[in-house]
Specification:
It is built from 13 helices and twelve strands. It is α/β, with parallel strands linked by helices and 370 residues long. A ten-stranded mixed β-sheet has the order 2-1-3-12-11-4-5-10-8-9, sandwiched between helices. Strands 6-7 form a two-stranded antiparallel sheet. The chain binds 3-isopropylmalic acid and magnesium ion (MG). The site of 3-isopropylmalic acid has 6 residues, from helix 5.
């Protein structure tokens, strides 16, 4: 069967690293049809929609998606860059990657952070962490208010703690809801334990803050404890997110599989990425049972756009995750091996690693090793 893969390079260096991915995919000779989709800033400015309907249709017709990077800007700045005929029409910018995660129910965001030997940017050489970030709810649910409508205030006033805000005007208050569901907690924790079981990992660390955020973090921890009982061979550790940041700097080699909610996972996964060379090495798989989007976790770095200067490794590792998800295990293994070899030999390195090679030269070298 020929795979249908949606290719969404997006903005800035998303295009540069997608060129790198194509070099490697061509070498692998994967039996696939690559379908280009529009996404990102350009389409926000021109059409008032960073994720056009035609792209959603394309995604629905694809087996999975390879995503580059997108530029996102705060509300007011985004509004200013709209084409003149679209200004003041009530459009507001949203992040297409967050929208895709929610639209397709891609509840797992899996982010491997592994130190490849010989990488001069490694914090230590013995780090092998995989972050499982809940990807559709939590503080990213998008339920936010400013100004806060009267109805919302009235509803919230059933809570005694709201009395502390009684003298604050609606427009002087903003509320972002942190929404957890039992199902949401269960499925992300289960994904982490299943991964640990499959790859023989000894521990799963659940990262929350139940001592303060009692209800949402509390729900996650309780569900995690229940699920952990089904996996007697895997130890579950519980750590508060603040302490976790500290422990990850102190003893990153002690940790294996991490699982947490959306925003905490966003933050912790950047921290973990930096331990193994920064965002140039950080890939992510956004997955459900039936669809997945693979991406490097870096941004669009507009100042380097089109220069083929940035490190393609994160994108190549995202391709590896895609091959795994498609079931092309041998190609996935070979690709990771090729990336590891190129890092180790150190003959082709982009500027972030102290080298002078281009994005495409590094990708070509990885392809040569395949
Ligand atoms: C990530 C990114 C995104 C997020 C941004 C680009 C919306 O930081 O994938 O980690 O916050 O999830
Ligand atoms: Mg992030």
């Amino acid at each position: 069967m020929t795979y249908k893969i949606a290719v969404l390079p997006g903005d800035g260096i998303g295009n540069d690293v997608m060129d790198a991915a194509k070099i490697v995919l061509d070498k692998i000779n994967l039996d696939a049809e690559y379908l280009h989709g529009d996404v990102g800033w350009e389409f926000w400015c021109k059409e008032g929609n960073p994720l056009p309907e035609r792209t959603i249709t394309l995604l629905k017709e694809s087996d999975c998606c390879l995503f580059g990077a997108i530029t996102s800007k705060p509300k007011e700045e985004a509004a200013k860059e709209l084409a003149p005929h679209l200004r003041d029409t009530g459009l507001s910018y949203y992040s297409p990657i967050v929208a895709m995660r929610q639209l397709f129910g891609l509840y797992v965001n899996m982010r491997p952070c592994k130190s490849y030997q010989g990488n001069p940017l490694n914090y230590r050489d013995d780090i092998d962490i995989v972050v499982f970030r809940e990807n559709t709810e939590g503080l990213y649910a998008g339920v936010e208010f400013h100004p806060v409508p009267d109805q919302v205030r009235t509803a919230l006033s059933v809570h005694a703690k709201m009395a502390a805000f009684k003298d604050v005007a609606n427009e002087d208050m903003a509320i972002s809801c942190r929404i957890f569901t039992r199902k949401g907690c269960q499925r992300i924790v289960r994904a982490a334990f299943e991964y640990a079981k499959k790859f023989n990992r000894k521990t799963v660390t659940v990262i929350e803050k139940p001592n303060v955020i009692r209800e949402t973090s509390g729900l996650m921890i309780r569900e995690a404890r229940n699920i952990a009982r089904e996996y007697p061979d895997i130890e579950m550790w519980e750590t508060n997110v603040d302490a976790m940041a500290m422990w990850l700097i102190k003893n990153p080699q002690d940790y294996s599989v991490l699982v947490t909610s959306n925003l905490f996972g966003d933050i912790i996964s950047d921290l973990c990425a930096q331990l193994v060379g920064g965002l140039g090495f950080a890939s992510a798989a956004n997955m459900s049972e039936s669809f997945a989007v693979f991406e490097p976790t870096h941004g669009s770095a507009p100042k380097y756009a089109g220069q083929h200067k940035v490190n393609p490794t994160a994108m190549l590792l995202a391709v590896k995750l895609m091959l795994d998800w498609l079931g092309e295990k041998e190609d996935a293994r070979a690709l990771e091996q090729a990336i590891a070899t190129v890092v180790k030999e150190g003959r082709f390195r982009t500027y972030d690693m102290g080298g002078t090679s281009s994005t495409l030269e590094v990708a070509q070298e990885v392809a040569n090793k395949l």
